Amino acid sequence: MNFLYPQKLVYGDTISLIAPSEPVDKQDVEKIKNYLEGLGYKLKLGKHLFYKIGDYTAGTIEDRAEDLNTAFADPEVKAIFVGVGGYAADQVLELLNFDTVAKNPKIFVGYSDATTLQQAILAKTGLVTFHGPNATSLIEAPDYTLTNFWKVITGEISNRVDPLSVWEVLRSGKGKGTLIGGNLDCTCSLLGTRYDALAALKEEKIILFWEEDSDEITDIIRNLFQLKHAGVLDRCEGMLVGKIADVLPEADDYVGVPELKYILLSLARAYDFPILWNVDFGHVPGKITIPIGVQGEIDTRTKTFRFNNCFA
User: Fold this and answer.
1) Domains along the sequence of the chain with CATH
2) Which of 86, 150, 283, 291 has the largest CB neighbor count within 10 A?
3) Which of 71, 58, 48, 68 lies closest to 24 in space, CA to CA?
């Protein structure tokens, strides 16, 4: 794959705020505006940012797609921040202008449902994007999250990422490959579609990273086996497992389901890639920002991973 790289964010740049999934609260937007302008950045709001269909989506499919296309086409905008997650980003994929995205590579940041957009953009254009805090998460994020985030998207960070919490080694070793991942459910929902980034990376060795939130353990298990059956793990040189937040330990109809990390080890026993568990990303306040589409390296001995330059 030929990768595209955005320009790093610099003081005074303009950031676009969009809501491709759930609506963003007006009070939160005001706080985001004050925060970003206090750091010396300008903020443009998506035209339909405050449109709502109940509390489900921020406007129609056409509204949300238009805001994303406009943000990429706008020469003043240097970065696009997703306001909040949700469940509807996949609805806009057919209306995205990927030619415009490819001609105007810029920073695109978000997590959770934004995974769908990030992987589709990578599959269609090769653009490197960033799995990092949604804009509403920046308002009350801890220093660990903010420091890592701003150093990554301004190109100031060293290529080594250190833990906040305890990262557990499920399987030891070193591995190098293209970083790809995000929310597990969103990742699996794209398998076999025209927006499947894992298929687009079929010639690449990969480091797969994933997290999950508000799901049953049996659904997570199904998704992991789907990745295996799709041949994804055949190309995996390392795996980063983030925080598994608000997941039911046992589905309503089952008892005695094994602990998830043991199921993962059993599933992966045919492979020898290293696995770091409980890494600081996902639906938690303290999180790192991970570029999608650059080379990364895991070293379980030091419980760290590194990634290459993210910018043009």
Assistant:
1) 14-153 (3.40.50.10740), 160-307 (3.50.30.60)
2) 291
3) 58
- pTM: predicted TM-score of the whole model, two decimal places: 0.96
Using alpha carbons, select from 309, 230, 245, 231 the residue that is nearest to residue 278.
245
Cβ count near 3 (within 10 Å) = 15
CA nearest to 122, candidates 239, 291, 293, 236: 293
Determine whether 184 is exposed, middle or buried from the number of CB atoms within 10 Å of its CB (0-12, 13-18, 19+). Answer: buried
Count CB-CB contacts under 10 A for residue 232: 21
- Cβ count within 10 A of residue 216: 18
CB contact at 8 A, 138 and 285: no
Both tokens of residue 185? 């459910």
88 to each of 53, 95, 208, 291, how far by Cα in Å? 12, 13, 23, 23
